[in-house]
Write a structure and sequence with these properties.
CATH superfamily of the largest domain: Immunoglobulins
CATH class of the largest domain: Mainly Beta
Strand content: 25-35%
Distance between the termini: 22 Å
Oligomer: single chain
Mean pLDDT: 78
Low-confidence stretches: 1-8, 14-38, 521-546
Number of strands: 35
CATH architecture of the largest domain: Sandwich
Helix content: 10-25%
Shape: globular
CATH topology of the largest domain: Immunoglobulin-like
Length: 546
C-alpha cells in the first residue's frame, strides 16, 4: 500500500516547497514521510502491528512459475516460496509462518508483491523478490523495511505553540485548508464471499461541509481507479461515464454525490479477483482536490480435504432464477476448464483433459439453483482456486463464485483408550460473533456446536455429550480444533467442521480423518497432538480468505 501512499507524499512535498519556511515546518507535523517507490531500491516504514505490501511487479507481465521472497540477513530459510501454483512451507522461516501472502489473482499478471501482516521490529531488514518465468531466475525488486514504534507524543508546550502559530493570520488558515483538501485518508474493507455488493466508503468530512456548495458543486470529475491504474468508475459533467470504465467492473455511485458529498462506490458481485487497492480522486480544473485509498479484501470460501478422498463438493448456490439458456462454467486457477454446463447438458469435450471423468454436477441444477461441483479422485495437484461463473444468453456474466480448495494430509491417529485426541484446524480469518461452527462425524451426527458466543451441548449427539471441547476464545484465536475425550474404535472415521455466517452461508469446510488403533495403553493428551497434524490449512491471506 506504501506505493500509493508515496504519491500523496510527493504531492505534499511539492506544496510545502512553495510555502514560506514557517508553513513548511507546520507541514512536517501533519505529513508522514515515506520513501519513493523504485522497485530496485524500495524503502518502506511501518509501525509494530501494521500490515504492509512489499512491491514486486514484473514489467514484462509474463506468467510467473515460481516466486521466492528472501531476506538478506536470514541465516537459513526463506520468507515465502510459491511454486507449482501452491505455497511451499518446507523451509519457511518460522517467524513468517501465517503472516505472509501474495495478492489474490495477481500472480498470473506478473505481480508477486508480498503482503506482510502484523509487523514487528524484528521484521526490519532487506527483502529480495526473485521470480522464475521460464528457466531463468530473476531478481525483480529489493525492499528495505524499517519497523519502529511511533515517535513520542508532542509535549504540551509544543501543542500550545502550534495553536498560536495557527492563529497568526489569514495566510496560515488558508494554508491549513489547502492541506486539508489534499488529505488522503486510508481505509480497509473486508467482505464475505457470495455477497451481492460491497461499499467502498468515501464521504466528505463534516469539516468541509461549510464550503461544499462553493467547492463540490463545481467539481469537474470524480474518478475511481484500482492499483493497476484501471478505471473503475468515472463521474463527470453531472453523470456517470460508463464508456470510460474497465469492462471487468460492475459499479454504482450516488446520483446526487455533489450535493450529498457521498463519493462512496458500490461494487457488485465482488470476488477474490476484486481484492485490490482502490483510489478515489476529485478534480477541479485539472487540479486534484482530494484523494482516498480503500483496500478491499474479498474473502474466499475454503474447502480442506485429505489426498485420496473419494470426492469433495465445491459449493455454489444462487437465489437468482435460471432459465435453460444460461451457461455454467467452472475453471481452475490456471484458467483450465474444469466443467461446463450449457443449455441443460454436460459436454465433456470442453473439459481440460486433467478433469475428464472426474467431475459431476446436479442434473436439475437450473431448477434447484444448485451449481455445486463434485470433484473425485483427489490429489495434491487439485489444490488451488476454483471459479464458478454463470452467463446469460447474451454472454453477460450473471454471477461469479470462488472456492479455495486445499488438498492436505490431515490424518490423525490415536490409540484406543487414550485420554483425548485433537482434531486440528486453525484459521486466520476474522470471525464475528454471529458465526456458527459445527463438527459432524462420518454418519452426519452432530459432534459439537458453537453458536452465539458459546457451546450448544443440547444439539450434540448423545454419544458425544461431555466428550468434546473447543477453545473458549475461538473467535479471537481462530483455533477451531476439536478435542475428543476417551476415543474408541467406534469413533474412527472422517470428521467435518463447517463454519456458517449469519445468513446460513458456508464460509469454510474442513475434513479431518481419524484413525483409532486398538490398544489398552493410556496416552496423555500431549502425546496425541502430533506436530505434523497441528497445522493451519488456511490459505496465506487475504486475500484468499473466506
Amino acid at each position: 500500500m506504501n506505493l500509493y501512499f508515496g504519491r500523496r507524499d510527493r504531492l505534499n512535498q511539492e506544496m510545502a516547497s512553495s510555502l514560506p519556511a514557517s508553513l513548511f515546518l507546520l507541514s512536517v507535523v501533519f505529513c508522514q514521510f515515506l520513501s519513493a517507490a523504485d522497485q530496485n531500491n524500495v524503502k518502506i516504514k511501518a509501525e509494530p502491528g501494521d500490515d504492509r505490501i512489499l512491491p514486486c511487479k514484473d514489467p514484462d507481465q509474463e506468467q510467473i512459475k515460481a516466486v521466492e521472497w528472501s531476506r538478506t540477513d536470514l541465516e537459513s530459510g526463506f520468507v515465502l516460496l510459491y511454486r507449482d501454483s501452491r505455497f511451499d512451507l518446507t523451509n519457511q522461516d518460522p517467524s513468517y509462518r501465517n503472516r505472509v501472502d501474495l495478492l489474490v489473482g495477481q500472480i498470473q499478471k506478473g505481480d508477486a508483491s508480498l503482503i506482510l501482516q502484523n509487523t514487528t521490529t524484528d521484521d526490519s531488514g532487506t527483502y529480495e523478490c526473485h521470480v522464475v518465468k521460464s528457466a531463468e531466475r530473476k531478481l525483480i525488486s529489493s525492499v528495505s523495511l524499517v519497523v519502529a514504534p511511533p515517535p513520542e507524543p508532542f509535549p504540551v508546550w509544543a501543542i500550545v505553540l502550534l495553536v498560536l502559530l495557527v492563529l497568526l493570520g489569514l495566510a496560515l488558515v488558508a494554508a491549513a485548508i489547502y492541506y486539508l483538501f489534499h488529505w488522503s485518508p486510508d481505509q480497509q474493507v473486508k467482505v464475505e464471499p457470495g455477497k451481492e455488493s460491497v461499499l467502498l466508503p468515501f464521504k466528505v468530512p463534516r469539516c468541509l461541509w461549510f464550503c461544499k456548495y462553493r467547492i463540490f458543486q463545481r467539481v469537474d470529475k470524480v474518478e475511481w481507479k484500482d492499483k493497476d491504474d484501471r478505471t473503475v468508475h468515472v463521474y463527470q459533467n453531472g453523470s456517470d461515464q460508463p464508456g470510460e470504465q474497465n469492462l471487468i467492473y460492475r459499479t454504482k455511485m450516488d446520483k446526487n454525490l455533489l450535493k450529498t458529498g457521498d463519493l462512496s462506490l458500490t461494487l457488485r458481485r465482488p470476488t477474490g479477483r476484486d481484492s485490490n487497492i482502490y483510489t478515489c480522486s476529485i478534480y477541479k480544473k485539472g487540479e486534484k482536490l482530494m484523494e482516498k485509498h480503500v483496500w478491499l479484501q474479498v474473502k474466499v470460501l475454503q474447502v480442506v480435504v485429505e489426498p485420496g478422498a473419494e470426492s469433495v463438493l465445491l459449493p455454489c448456490r444462487t437465489r437468482e432464477n435460471l432459465d435453460g439458456v444460461v451457461k455454467v462454467e467452472w475453471r481452475d486457477g490456471g484458467n483450465r476448464t474444469v466443467h461446463v454446463y450449457p443449455n441443460g447438458s454436460d459436454p465433456p469435450g470442453e473439459q481440460d483433459e486433467f478433469y475428464r471423468t472426474r467431475t459431476k454436477m446436479d442434473e436439475n441444477l437450473l431448477e434447484r439453483k444448485n451449481l455445486s461441483l463434485t470433484l473425485i479422485r483427489l490429489t495434491e495437484r487439485d489444490t488451488g482456486i476454483y471459479t464458478c461463473s454463470v452467463y446469460n444468453r447474451d454472454g453477460d456474466m450473471l454471477m461469479m463464485n470462488e472456492i479455495n480448495l486445499w488438498v492436505i494430509d490431515l490424518q490423525v491417529e490415536v490409540v484406543s483408550g487414550a485420554e483425548s485426541v485433537l482434531l486440528p484446524w486453525r484459521t486466520r480469518e476474522n470471525l464475528d460473533g454471529d458465526v456458527k461452527v459445527e463438527w459432524k462425524d462420518k454418519d452426519d451426527r452432530m459432534v459439537h456446536v458453537y453458536q452465539n458466543g458459546s457451546d450448544q451441548p443440547r444439539e450434540q449427539g448423545e454419544i458425544y455429550r461431555t466428550r468434546t471441547k473447543m477453545d473458549e476464545n475461538l473467535l479471537k484465536t481462530g483455533d477451531l480444533s476439536l478435542t475428543l475425550r476417551r476415543p474408541t474404535e467406534r469413533d474412527e472415521g472422517t470428521y467435518t467442521c463447517s463454519v456458517y455466517n449469519r445468513d446460513g452461508g458456508i464460509l469454510m469446510v474442513v475434513r479431518v480423518p481419524l484413525k483409532v488403533k486398538a490398544g489398552t495403553d493410556r496416552v496423555q493428551p500431549e502425546d496425541t497432538r502430533t506436530g505434523s497434524n497441528s497445522i493451519d490449512p488456511s490459505p496465506l491471506m487475504g486475500d484468499q480468505s473466506v
